[in-house]
From TrEMBL, chains A, B:
Keyword Transcription listed: yes
Protein name listed in UniProt: LacI family DNA-binding transcriptional regulator
SUPFAM superfamilies found in the cross-reference section: lambda repressor-like DNA-binding domains, Periplasmic binding protein-like I
Transmembrane parts of this sequence: none
Entry coiled-coil feature ranges: none
GO molecular-function terms, A-Z: DNA binding
Length: 345, 345
DNA sequence: CTGAAAGCGCTTACAG
DNA sequence: CTGAAAGCGCTTACAG
């Protein structure tokens, strides 16, 4: 592969001049620039990305970091990533998905600086190792979701108002006359589980309803979403725990609930009402009955997270920002109004 | 940020030795290695990724390239990416999603080498600029899908046997007694559209059925999938074109068909049977009626593409491989058997 | 096993 | 506007 010296020689200029033609940071006489470009083309030359990076100390790459290792992206992540990519596209950044095993990172061989200008952290947890280990020297970061309390004021983040949303969903079900509302929450280590828990309990307490521990379940991180919904319902029903409505973490969990109901011969919404957080599937309307849910606007979360990050990369004096993205309830037909004899629309 | 010299000084060794401790390519006396590691830790030192890359000439990053610009990932891509990431994880690679606008790449400022060891190309098209422009000097590539004919023998690729699958799907519908089978194919510029077209026509011809051009439609790339399904059906029905079955590009297109049918007061499967390629949603079974489709095993496509690529990166004499991933028909309840009066299961 | 030096391929003051 | 030289922070023969 031709390098900058070859081009300089062929064009009859110094390599500084070749560099200037490409970086466009310093003007070069038009005629000279053309000669250089022509020489570059003839030699199939492009500036070496890593050499440039080494001297410029910036990569125009932003990183995306999942919790744990080898986690799979969900559909929520998909929308989020599409949002991130859109912003990347607009600003000329690339996106690097970090998949390195954490024990790799302990090995000297793989212990290196992170080849990005900044990073987006997904699905923060309470004692999030990724976040806790960060030092002042690390590149800028933006979290999607609420960071651990201890780091909250030090980090940029973009989040929905999950507490309020959970409260709204619960209130909605209360208004429909439900009293025993099962909450299939996400796994307890995720910070969002606390926010939703708070909203859920707040609504119940406000309505003067006692909290029943049996009706609030946290996901086991290793259980697939579908099974989580399916098994929880089957188990509770078998045990004779009664509930008339269930709020699920995602529409995939809700799907598990639908399947369990079908197997148990229970009707949705007549026997069980269902409401899902994270209504990120275009298919929810095709559920039978169409599934009510809250739309988190994942794409916007991603877009804004990337925007915040790029702003901080380009201006390290940019302020720490906490941005809230609107989420909205989408009421379809999976919840029954117990106050009337007809099914709630 | 501390560099290798600082560490060498603190540990009282040369920087070559520090390097050896980290790269582990040459043995270092245990006692010395520990001293170096301790010094590194004290200074919060990690080898600089870019500097290492520049001298080693490998990044341990593989690229993912979409066609066109700023395209969004679909659910098919999501599964595929999850497969790629799994392989990356196993081999210690990172994944870089290239989102740069192509006109950026024409600007000297953004014209650089690609910072990856190899690339995976998605959704190949007939005169795919990404592929056509490649030179011998570019890093190894693997295509997911069939490359343009001219490049076929020169490139590794992983693909389903789309022709056979399309033939099977069509035959299945023919066996059910359908004669007017509408095919909502993907956009014409994608190579896969040709394979499916071939399979579809082959089955029809074999059954002695004349091809009706009106019953074979190609997607307009800029039309959203849902609209494509919805509008095509509405338009054809309005125009009085008759068909009893429709094969769609994806389950999202099928969803559009479902909606159009609902609006037109047509029943699925009684009035229209539906069969979808790319059954990559966990939600298809929840359609009403459950949607029959072909599962492309996107995750495996991704896993194998990454495997092939990494093999070629690590051994540039590795052979050019064309790998076929099995796809399988999943028959649910969206197709009617015209030969009997009951609905086909 | 260890050190000193050259080299990877750029960019960037500095001097003209 | 242009050139010569230093520097970015590593790795890798080479010599011991």
């Amino acid at each position: 592969m031709a390098n900058i010296d070859d081009v300089a020689r062929l064009a009859g200029v110094s390599k500084g001049t070749v560099s200037n033609v490409f970086t466009q940071k310093r003007g070069v006489r038009k005629e000279v620039a053309e000669r250089v470009l022509k020489a570059a083309q003839a030699l199939n030359f492009k500036p070496n990305y890593w050499a440039r990076t080494l001297s410029m100390k910036q990569t125009s790459i932003i990183g995306l970091r999942m919790p744990g290792e080898n986690t799979k992206f969900s559909k929520f992540h998909l929308s989020l990533i599409n949002g991130v990519l859109q912003t990347c596209f607009e600003h000329g950044y690339r996106l690097l998905v970090n998949t390195l095993a954490t024990d790799y990172q302990e090995m000297p061989k793989y212990m290196t600086t992170n080849p990005v200008d900044g990073e987006i952290f997904l699905d923060p947890e309470h004692n999030d190792a990724r976040l806790m280990q960060r030092t002042e020297l690390d590149p800028p970061a933006v979290v999607v979701g609420r960071p651990p309390e201890a780091l909250r004021h030090r980090l940029c983040y973009v989040d929905n108002d999950n507490e309020t949303t959970a409260e709204q969903v619960t209130s909605y079900l209360l208004e429909l006359g439900h009293r025993d509302i099962l909450f299939l929450n996400t796994s307890q280590q995720r910070t969002v589980s606390v926010d939703r828990k708070r909203g859920y309990e707040k609504a119940l307490i406000q309505a003067g309803i006692a909290l029943k521990p049996k009706l609030h379940i946290f996901k086991n991180p290793s259980t697939p979403s579908l099974d989580y919904g399916f098994r929880s319902i089957r188990e509770l029903v078998t045990k004779g725990v009664s509930f008339s409505a269930v709020v699920t973490d995602t529409d995939k969990v809700a799907l598990g609930v639908y399947r369990a109901a079908a197997e148990l011969g229970l009707s949705i919404p007549n026997d069980i009402s269902v409401f899902a957080f994270s209504d990120d599937s275009v298919f929810s309307p095709e559920f039978h009955p169409p599934l009510s849910g809250v739309s988190l606007n994942a794409e916007e979360l991603g877009r804004e997270a990337a925007n915040l990050l790029i702003r901080r990369i380009q201006d390290n004096s940019a302020p720490i920002v906490h941005q809230t993205i609107l989420s909205n309830l989408v009421v379809r037909q999976s919840c029954r109004n117990l106050n009337s004899t007809i099914i709630h629309l």
